[in-house]
Design goal:
Chain lengths: 266, 254
């Protein structure tokens, strides 16, 4: 379970202050898949880095599994948007997936099993000895997902993971995330700027305002658990939900007109 | 095979031109290449190689490796620490700007004229390009990669080994390459100043005793040595930075 309470982040430089996050409070229950959407430049990445313990918030608190987050918590894995910059190019696919396990002091035979299982789960059998840059963008992001899966996290953070892959690959990867989530029972917080993706993936969608960010609205996605690209997206209920989210985001953007744009954290 | 051919084609041509042009040379100081080559075979006997070239190579190797260890260690420390970097950078630039041969007389004053002096000279000249390139390489580690490492608990010594050093390795290798040619120059210069053996010493001895073809042959040997060392370096680089060249090719294609 993940709790975010009164989270606030102000970037200070010599000359000025930029308030990226104003006051954010929400929870993600254990085993839940929640999507965070917001207009571009609303501080999604700042929020995610605070939750991941990579950035110290100015105020408020983040708790993962009841423990306050101060630095990256052990049971949390992150998948970043820039797959090309988050895989170690000097390591093979296997070493990339295995390195965090070595750091966790997982015994060697168990590591081999975890790596092989995780790569099989994302459909990347037989790429263990390849280097990441020998793979396509979609495959690289699968490696990053495999690394997160092999880590056996209780909480998985995903920061716009499919923003840089083509549309078809993206649909495949969305289904992959849902399948992995259902199989592993992991808590997922999925950050995206794509409204359709948020409604399609999430059990719940949290909408953020423009920066300085607050929670604009929350919405439970009452679509059946078994979703597929063809039927779910054609479902009238899906359309109704995405319209609601869209309206809220537009509202958030409209309100942003009165605020100076935030140069930091998108 | 083809590469070897391409590599040797131009040097062979230049030697041929030199050979032909100098055939009828009457000059005492620029004898025909034929004479020089004969002198080469007579001069650089196995005993001589052992007595003069081996000590030179030993000093070169020790000095170079020491400089590499020092430069990389200090470079990582400075590159990973913003405050240290701000304090150290002007000083480093100052030391880098001093031409290393200038240091030879100074170092002789307190380190004597033994092997220690030559090693210190080589280290003091080689360490700067390695250090400064390492600083740059470590500083330029990608932010996302660094976040990834932290998020997955890759910290402390593992961070150094799996993130900082490999990420900086292309830059470190650039520094090492620059340092290699500096090391050869300093090896020769330090031996010319004060020594009882070594390549630089021998070449100066030949010059002073007017053994001009022998002197030329020593210079040719020095050139060959530099060539072999840089080829060895290239091989090591290809092995070490295979991933980097692959990555760059992949980026260029896309």
């Amino acid at each position: 379970m993940l709790e975010v309470e009164g989270l606030r982040k102000v970037y200070r430089s010599d000359r000025r202050e930029v308030e990226a996050l104003r006051d954010l409070t929400f929870t993600v229950d254990a085993g839940e898949l929640v999507c965070l959407v917001g207009p571009s430049g609303c501080g999604k990445t700042t929020l995610l880095r605070c939750i991941a313990g990579l950035l110290d918030p100015t105020g408020g608190a983040v708790r993962a599994g009841g423990h306050p987050v101060q630095g990256p918590p052990p049971g949390m894995a992150v998948v970043f948007q820039e797959y090309g910059r988050s895989l170690f190019p000097w390591m093979t696919v296997r070493d990339n997936v295995e390195l965090p396990l070595k750091q966790k002091k997982v015994p060697k035979p168990r590591r081999a099993t975890l790596v092989a299982d995780a790569l099989a789960a994302v459909g990347l059998d037989g790429t263990q000895t390849a280097y990441p840059w020998q793979l396509s963008g979609g495959m690289q992001q699968r490696v990053a997902i495999a690394r997160a899966v092999a880590y056996e996290p209780s909480i998985l953070l995903m920061d716009e993971p499919f923003a840089a892959v083509d549309a078809q690959t993206r649909a495949d990867l969305e289904d992959l995330v849902r399948a992995l989530w259902q199989r592993l029972g992991v808590t997922i917080l999925f950050v995206t700027h794509d409204i359709d993706e948020a409604v399609y993936l999430g059990q719940r969608v949290i909408m953020l305002s423009a920066s300085p960010t607050v929670v604009q609205d929350q919405l439970t996605v009452d679509l059946p658990a078994g979703r597929d690209q063809l039927h779910t997206r054609a479902d009238p209920r899906f359309t109704a939900l995405r319209t609601r989210v869209y309206e809220q985001i537009q509202l958030a953007k409209g309100r942003a007109g009165t605020q100076p744009p935030a140069p930091l954290g998108s | 095979m083809r590469r070897a051919l391409r590599l040797l084609a131009l040097p062979a041509l230049l030697f041929a031109i030199w050979y032909a042009a100098s055939l009828g040379s009457e000059s005492f100081y620029a004898p025909p290449l034929r004479t020089i080559l004969t002198a080469f075979a007579d001069t650089w006997t196995p005993e001589r190689l052992r007595a003069d070239v081996l000590p030179s190579l030993g000093r070169l190797l020790v000095g170079y490796l020491l400089a590499a260890a020092l430069g990389i260690a200090a470079g990582v420390a400075v590159g990973a620490n913003r405050r240290l970097r701000a304090a150290a950078e002007p000083v480093l630039e100052f030391f880098r700007a001093i031409p290393p041969p200038v240091l030879v007389p100074v170092i002789m004053l307190f380190a004597g004229i033994g092997n220690g002096m030559k090693v210190i000279v080589i280290v003091s000249g080689c360490v700067w390009p390695i250090l400064l390139n390492t600083v740059e390489g470590v500083r330029a580690v990608d932010g996302v990669l660094s976040d990834t490492a932290r998020a997955y608990g890759v910290t402390g010594p593992a961070r150094l080994r799996h993130l900082l050093l490999p990420a900086a390795s292309p830059q470190i290798v650039t520094g090492l390459r620059q340092a290699l040619s500096i090391a050869i120059i300093l090896m020769v210069i330090s031996e010319m100043f004060a020594a009882s053996n070594g390549l630089g010493f021998t070449i100066v001895q030949f010059q002073r005793s007017f053994a001009i073809p022998e002197m030329w042959s020593g210079i040719i040997l020095l050139g060959l040595l530099g060539f072999v060392l840089s080829e060895l370096f290239r091989l090591a680089e290809r092995f070490l930075l295979g991933w980097y060249h692959g990555l760059r090719d992949a980026q260029r294609r896309s």
